[in-house]
Amino acid sequence: MIAIIDYDAGNIRSVEKAVEALGGDAVLTSDAAVIRQADHVILPGVGSFGSAMENLYRFDLVDVIRETAEEGKPFLGICLGLQLLFERSEESPGAEGLGILKGEVLRIPEGEGRKIPHMGWNSLHLQNDGRLFAGVQEGAYVYFVHSYYLRAADPSIVRATAEYGVTIHASVEQGNVMAAQFHPEKSSSVGRQILQNFLALK
C-alpha cells in the first residue's frame, strides 16, 4: 500500500491518480496509523511552505513523517513536499521545515526574460546515480511549477539539477528518502518511469 499524505495542500489527487494508473494501491490519508502500515509513503503538495508546515502540525503528521524517514521505508517528496523535508525557506521566514535533510529553499532570482513562477518543461542533468532515474535519459524533460528552489547543504545527495537562472537542485536522495522539485505525475512517460522506479523500491 502506498500512503499519500493528505494535509490540505494542492495537487494531491493527481499524484494519487498517477500511482493508481501504474497499478499501485494508493491511499490518500492523514491518519498516522495508516501511514505507518504503508509500504511506500509520498508527501506531495503545492502551496506555501509556512502554511504547509502549520497543516502538518495541525494534522499531527510531523512525527510520523520523521519516523518514516528514519525507519528506512521508501519515502518520496514532490514539489512542496521536497521543500518541506529541508530546514527553512525564504518564502516563510521563521518557519522551520521538517529538517530531515539539510539545506534551504531560496527564491528564484528575477532576470530578463525569466518568468516566476518557473512553470513548464525543463531538462534535467542527472548525477550521482539516483535510483529514481533508472532508465531515464540524460537531458530528459520534466514539468516544473515553483517560485522557490532547493540548495542542498550536501551536494552528494543531489541526483538531478535543472537550470533556470540558477542551478536548481531538482531531485535528491539520501538513503530511503527521495524528493523531486518537479512533478513526475505531470511529466508524461519520463514521470511515469520515475514513479515506477519509486514504487519498485523495497
Distinctive features:
6 helices, alpha/beta, Rossmann fold, globular, single chain
Account of the 3D structure:
This protein has helices spanning 13-21, 32-37, 49-58, 62-71, 80-84, 188-199; strands spanning 2-5, 26-29, 40-43, 75-78, 88-89, 103-107, 118-123, 125-126, 141-146, 148-152, 158-163, 167-174, 177-180. By secondary structure, it is α/β, with parallel strands linked by helices. The chain has a single domain, classed as Rossmann fold (3-Layer(aba) Sandwich), CATH 3.40.50. The chain has an 8-stranded mixed sheet. It has a 3-stranded mixed sheet with strand order 5-6-10. A two-stranded antiparallel ribbon has the order 7-9. Strand 12 (167-174) and strand 13 (177-180) form a beta hairpin. It is globular.
CATH top level is: Alpha Beta
What is the string of SSEs from the N terminus onward? EHEHEHHEHEEEEEEEEEH
CATH superfamily: Class I glutamine amidotransferase (GATase) domain
**Radius of gyration over C-alpha positions, nearest whole angstrom:** 15 Å
Would you identify the regions where 5 or more consecutive residues have pLDDT less than 50? none
Number of helices: 6
Q: Would you tell me the structural class of the helices and strands?
A: alpha/beta
